[in-house]
Design brief:
mainly beta; Nuclear Transport Factor 2, Chain: A; Beta-galactosidase, Chain A, domain 5; 3 domains; 4-stranded antiparallel beta sheet; about 10% helix; globular; Cu_amine_oxidase_N-reg; metal-binding; copper
Length: about 600
């Protein structure tokens, strides 16, 4: 493991005083330094202005913040039984299950996931499923300094460090409001022993700051949140799963903590030359540019498991009728993705709706029931695709992927991320040849490339080349035989070597080799085509949504960063027959008697 050097001198925030130019490699089994590299020397930043503890601050001080409190005289609008949370928010009832899943036992990690989320439909008088499972699958944080001391700083917070090991206990009044209810969590340690983290999750309601709807009446909007805080190296990430009236849980993440800084000899921004990779935030201190990408696994089951993904584009059209004062209008054009490749989206400025529908369930007026994903601010990776960190994090190549449900496909960066080569990521799964569909609905199980061979055999009436593998039946020169064998027939070739176009043995062999090579080429083409086109229409599907930040540091982020937040929403789209909160009763007014 590579180890960095810092100058502490009794200070808490020693991360702001790196000893640049020194890199050590430590053998963790021997607990010895096996490599020491001292490439250059530079000035160690001073400790000035790096203290973030309030009791260590010097005047002048800012204003004293006024206290706030949330009062719920009738109790919270949710009920917790074990790991099941039932929300009865102003009459809209939801249920979901919190599950601490130890999918990465080798790393002792755990993730807070929402499972089996359903909503009660008053009009239909029953619970209707919306979500099977949702969680953060991976977090990718690459730093933009290619120098020898920094190039490897491309962190995978979930796969390399583990959310279980990074999770901390939450504090009332600090991480969560005073009306929060706390829940403990467990993860499997490296030896399999269950490890308990007290108060790792909190559930609370807060005033959302907006109204449910308004025409002539006013309603108060409540938001119920689930929070978990993760400490990973320099940054503290707090992850919220939230639900509002008329909506299902969305996701929100806040980034705060310490910047990763680099020691330099400069003391003024005007002195910086080309070749530096960040912003000067203090004397002899540069904060390095970096990204944050969080990939969410969203297994939606909208009114049941068979779902489809629909992208609805907004298209501007000219007015064709004469005598109309308007010249243009916009309309919608919807397309249902049939395969994985059609649902790989790189989002931009073009307006569109991203909807998961159940084509087997309709509203009273005939619309397919659905839920739509409303993305947050768009930030996509801008690294080269062949850059080694990006190969490992190829799941960030798109903002959205849609795949058929596969029990083994849980972690976007792969099951074993440490020292991975990028050969088990979400981007690789979409190219995997899980099965090949041919006309007639027949599916062939894949075979290893090592098992594929071709041979020339003699048959009645002439010679033929046999290639074992998978070839689409539509290839006219080939026919599908039992046991997945494909035969490409050559023209008739007499065995006696008589004067014939194919009488020469050398010509016959060259043709056989040519056809054999053609078989291999066609097989690989079909493998690539089919692997990138697993069927997702009217299937049990999973959305993989990546929320991103390009972080250019500023001095306000030093020595500790103000929280930067972003999120996404899941909102019903023709799921209900009408506004589901019309029959919601307003809360009783709460009157507090305060002494002067």
């Amino acid at each position: 493991m590579k180890v960095l050097a810092y100058y502490t001198n009794g200070m808490v925030n020693f991360y702001m005083r790196p000893i640049e130019g020194i890199v050590m490699v430590v053998d963790l089994e021997l607990m010895k330094i096996v490599k020491y590299h001292d490439r250059f020397a530079t000035t160690v930043p001073t400790a000035e202005d790096t203290e973030y503890r309030l009791e260590k601050q010097n005047p002048p001080f800012g204003p004293h913040l006024k206290g706030t409190a949330i009062v719920q005289p009738d109790g919270p609008g949710f009920e917790i039984k074990g790991h099941t949370i039932s929300f009865d928010v102003r009459g809209v009832i939801r249920q979901c299950v919190l599950q601490n899943q130890g999918g990465r036992a080798a790393f002792g990690s755990v993730e807070l996931s929402i499972t089996h989320a359903s909503i009660y439909d008053l009009e239909r008088g029953k619970y209707r499923q919306v979500l099977y499972r949702a969680y953060v699958s991976e977090v990718f944080v690459p730093y933009m300094d290619p120098t020898e001391e920094w190039y490897y700083k491309t962190y995978f917070d979930s796969g390399e460090f583990g959310f279980g090991l990074s999770a901390v206990s939450l504090q009332s009044g600090v991480d969560c409001p005073n009306n929060a209810i706390f829940m403990d969590g467990f993860y499997a340690g490296q030896d399999g022993t269950p490890v308990k983290i007290s108060n790792v999750t909190c559930v609370f309601e807060k005033y959302a700051g907006n109204i449910m709807w308004r025409h002539t009446e006013i309603g108060i909007s409540d938001e119920t949140g689930l929070r978990k805080t993760l400490e990973s190296l320099m940054f503290d990430d707090f992850s919220d799963k939230r639900g509002q009236i008329g909506r299902e849980p969305g996701g929100k993440v806040g980034l705060t903590g310490l910047l990763e800084v680099k020691a330099v000899n400069y003391t003024q921004a005007s002195q910086i030359k080309a070749g530096e990779y960040g912003t000067m935030v203090g004397a002899n201190t540069i904060a390095t540019h970096h990204d944050h990408f969080l990939t969410y696994h969203l297994d939606l089951d909208v009114d049941g498991a068979p779902n489809s993904f629909v992208k609805t584009n907004l298209i501007t059209k000219p007015v064709a009728e004469e005598g109309v004062p308007r010249k243009s209008y916009w309309t919608v054009s919807s397309k249902t993705a049939r395969t994985e490749s059609e649902a790989q989206l790189h989002l931009g400025l073009e307006p569109c709706d991203l909807i998961v529908v159940n084509p087997n369930k309709q509203t009273k007026v005939g619309n397919n029931v659905g839920y739509r994903l409303i993305p947050g601010p768009i930030a996509s990776t801008i690294l080269f695709r062949d850059d080694y960190p990006q190969i490992r994090a190829a799941f960030t190549n798109n903002n959205l992927w849609v795949t058929p449900y596969n029990k083994s496909e849980k972690w976007a960066g792969g099951r074993y991320v440490d020292q991975s080569r990028g050969d088990d990521t979400l981007a690789v799964w979409t190219k995997r040849n899980d099965d090949i569909s041919i006309q007639g609905g027949r599916k062939l199980q894949p075979v290893d490339r090592a098992s594929i061979h071709s041979k020339v055999v003699n048959g009645a009436g002439g010679k033929r080349c046999v290639c074992e593998g998978h070839i689409d039946k539509l290839i006219r020169s080939c026919s599908l035989l039992p046991k997945n064998k494909m035969i490409a027939r050559l023209p008739y070739m007499p065995k006696d070597g008589s004067n014939d176009l194919f009488g020469s043995h050398w010509i016959r062999e060259r043709i056989a080799q040519y056809v054999s090579s053609l078989c291999h080429i066609l097989w690989w083409l079909m493998r690539l085509k089919s692997g990138m086109n697993r069927k997702i229409e009217n299937e049990d599907i999973v959305l993989w949504y990546t929320l991103g930040f390009h972080h250019v540091p500023y001095q306000e982020d030093f020595p500790i960063m103000l929280t930067l937040s972003a999120g996404f929403e899941l909102r019903p789209s023709n799921f209900f027959d009408r506004n589901p909160v019309l029959k919601t009763k307003s809360p009783k007014p709460v009157i507090l008697s305060c002494k002067p």
